Amino acid sequence: MSVIQKIRDKYAVMIVVVICVAIVSFLLQDAFFGKSSLNQRSTSVGKVNGQDLDFADYQRRIQDAENNVRQQMPNIDEQTRQTIREQVWNQFLNEQIMQAQYKELGITVTEAEVVDQIKGKNPNPIVVQQFTRDGKFDRVALQQAISQAGSNPQIRDALHQMESYISKYQEQQKYVTLIKQGVFYPKWMAKQQQDDNGQTAVVSYVSVPYATIADSTIKVTDAELDRFIQEHKQLFKIEESRKVEYVAFDATPSAADSAAAIQQIVAMKEELDTTNDVAGFINLNSDIKYYDGYISRNEAKVPQKDSIVDLPIGGIFGPYYDNNLIVYAKMVDRKNMPDSVKVRHILIASGPQGGLPDSIAKKRADSIAVAVKGGADFKALVTQFSDDPGSKETGGEYELTPSSQFVPEFKDFALEGAKGEVKVVKTQFGYHVIEVMERKNIGPAIKVAYLAKSVEASKETNNVAYAAASAFAGKARNAAAFEKTVQQEKLNKRIADNVRPMDFVIPGIGQSRDLVRWAYDSKKGDVSSVLTFDDKYVVAVLTSVRKEGTAPLEDVRPQVEAEVKKHKKAEQIIAKLQAPASLDVAAKSTNQPVLKAEGVSFDTPFIAALGFEPRVAGAAFNKSWGTTKVSAPIEGNGGVYVIKVDSLQPAAQPAQDLASQQAAYEQGVKSMLDQQLFEVLKKKSDIKDTRGKFF
């Protein structure tokens, strides 16, 4: 027997005992100290059909998405972060919902299928895109990448990502294909639709508008209104939300604050006048960053424009007010430029964002430039070579003004190049073959630097605003006191309705996540403490708590009352009309004229003389009445109607042949599936969004 085996045998019992003691200790610790996993706060930020999204996983996904965005936009603001959070959440929903669909239908993608999508005769579009050289799929380059994957971690990771994408792509394609194959429009239904739409009707009618009965004469009870809501739940379906009323006390800068800001900026004016590095000085000291570009005189949208645009080079104007800023404007340069240009370009991508190696990209761009100068078809070259999806469909064309947001190298040549000039320009995206097509309205353009300082509320000013908010909060300790104090002190109360759990902005306040979080942690009628948001101090009262489901009567009373009263009016009108023997009888009993409507169509519920009245349009083609009988009273949207069809006429448009009609209908449904299928699946899913507890 080996030494190791002896040790195992000798200490096996001891090890088991130690493990048991550890488990018992753990359980006892949980019991005595309340740390049982059953009592721990959930880390789930949401659930889809029973599948949790853990907070850590959600944060990791957000971080990955932010890192991708930073490649294009280094500074991410709060609004962008909010957008990313929603995108990541929706991505998770898509994953879980679609994976459940694939599992239910038995849709799988084998390793052999993925390999075929990479190495087969018809590679996946993503493979073709990644390994296209000189406008053609380069299978040799693909094979080289595969052979290098074993020794090159970067290539190996890229291929793994490609395989994952292809697998998901194939699952989606199989699912969509399966669903679309189920779309069928029977021939008998197409024939029925042809018959329905093959005629138009000329109709005589009597209309008794609901407005002929005063609302004040119709009495409704809450029980009737509640019953209407329950019978039409789909119309009153709501998401979870809160209603908040609030008073904001602004820390508005005082005259002393303005004087201090003016003193600050005046002290910097001398350096602005003498510095040789205007851009560096402005970026270091100004609340308006330096814009190293030109704008035409017409594009200048600043206060005191006339005084600024006519400054000599080096001249300074100010100080002047621009909203909450005190500003000096310095003329840096001026030149003649077009106020707009039209260019077209071909991008050969290179650099860190992807594309060809730099040297190869440069050679290709130079060759294309030679071809363009030699008279080659520019649009054809765009289609074949350009890596810019934003302009590919327009033949590579862009229109620019001096203030347009383009990379500087591209913009400089576009604005300064001569009409017809072709040049290869390098930017962070690669090499651009640019041709200047048109230059309009050449005239003065200016480059202006703005030294600006915000007028900010001082500590003393903030203390005054906070004191006012605190005094109000001390009086408004409940909802009734809140309203009474608002009235007594003639304060401006604002309302934030339909506040959702993941809202970050409230109108009138701006970024206000703390207020949203408070609203979801409070009970109806609660009043907040003083909440601070930049230069505002806010006191709020929670006036409504709406759970997901059906809207309460108090929130929808006006529209429900209108519908119930309309129905009661219809009952009165129908009782008065009964079953009229003719339109004349109907007209006489209601004191309404007999009118006429032409061109009434079965598939178009809008009638020129009446508006949206689908029941009337449908009744015009009721064969039980034909062209001899008067209809029964019809309860419509605007009133009660009695109609008689005078004649039926062939439709103006000839009927489509059945095969074409079937094909068009099926194609329309398939197109609709592409746009709406996921939203339908989403509505059918059990989704719990609890992200608001963590943000």
Task: Describe this protein's structure.
This protein has 695 residues and is of the alpha+beta class. The chain has five domains: 1-40; 111-181, no CATH class; 199-231 and 555-650, Chitinase A, domain 3 (Roll); 240-252 and 458-547, Chitinase A, domain 3, CATH 3.10.50; 254-456, Chitinase A, domain 3. 46% of the residues lie in helices and 23% in strands. The strands form eight sheets. Strands 8, 9, 10, 11, 12 and 13 form a six-stranded antiparallel beta sheet that branches. A four-stranded antiparallel beta sheet has the order 20-5-24-23. Helix 4 (111-119) crosses helix 7 and helix 8 crosses helix 22.
Structure annotation, total helices: 22
Average pLDDT: 86
State the share of residues found in helices, binned by percent.
40-55%
- Low-pLDDT stretches are 1-40
List the domain count as a whole number.
5
Summarize this, please?
The protein is α+β, with helices and mostly antiparallel strands and 695 residues long.
Give the SSE layout:
Blueprint: H1 3-33, E1 44-48, E2 51-54, H2 55-70, H3 78-105, H4 111-119, H5 125-130, E3 132-133, E4 136-137, H6 139-148, H7 153-181, H8 187-197, E5 199-209, H9 222-231, E6 237-238, E7 241-250, H10 255-274, H11 278-285, E8 295-296, H12 305-309, E9 316-322, E10 325-349, H13 358-373, H14 378-385, E11 397-400, H15 408-416, E12 422-427, E13 430-454, H16 459-475, H17 479-488, E14 493-499, E15 505-506, E16 510-511, H18 513-521, E17 531-533, E18 536-546, E19 549-550, H19 553-577, H20 583-590, E20 594-601, E21 606-607, E22 611-612, H21 614-619, E23 634-635, E24 639-650, H22 658-684, E25 687-689
Antiparallel strand pairs: 1-2, 1-25, 3-4, 5-20, 5-24, 6-19, 7-14, 7-18, 8-13, 9-10, 10-11, 10-13, 12-13, 15-16, 17-18, 21-22, 23-24
Helix pairs in contact: 2-3, 4-7, 8-22, 9-19
